[in-house]
Amino acid sequence: MGANELSTLDRTTLRVWRVTNLLGWGAAAAITFILVMAGFIVLWQAADVGEVRGWIGIPLLIVQLGIAAAAAGLVGGGHLYRAPGIVTFVGVWLVSMFFLLAGMVGNDISFLLIGGAIASAVAGAAALVARWRWRRRPRALRA
User: Fold this and answer.
1) How many CA atoms lie within 13 A of 112 on its CB side?
2) Which residues, other chains included, contact 141 with Cβ-Cβ below 8 Å and sequence gap of 6+?
3) Structurally, how many domains does the chain consist of?
4) pLDDT top residue among 6 and 71
5) Within a domain: residue 17?
């Protein structure tokens, strides 16, 4: 039974599965990003390092964002059947921009521009990891 011999119900089921695969695992990658970042925030608050927080904050944040992006990329690249880089990028970027806009109250437009660049860089890193993970899967799973 070839692809041309599928019934209407079978073709519809296949289309629905493809769409839900993209949406579901894209959301899972975004949620993974949120959970990893939330875990880092909890650890950061629990550490209560006082004065050290000022000089180590930016490098630590960069490492945290990188780890969260890699985790999201591994989830997206490991489960999406097609376009893992694009789907993971969009999911992580939307989540990053949502939290950026939520924190923008009382800040000027430069905060949005810098934050948007950071969100794009983080989402780009997640997309690269997703593509790398996807390419390591067996060829039959990448169809």
Assistant:
1) 9
2) 81
3) 1
4) 71
5) no
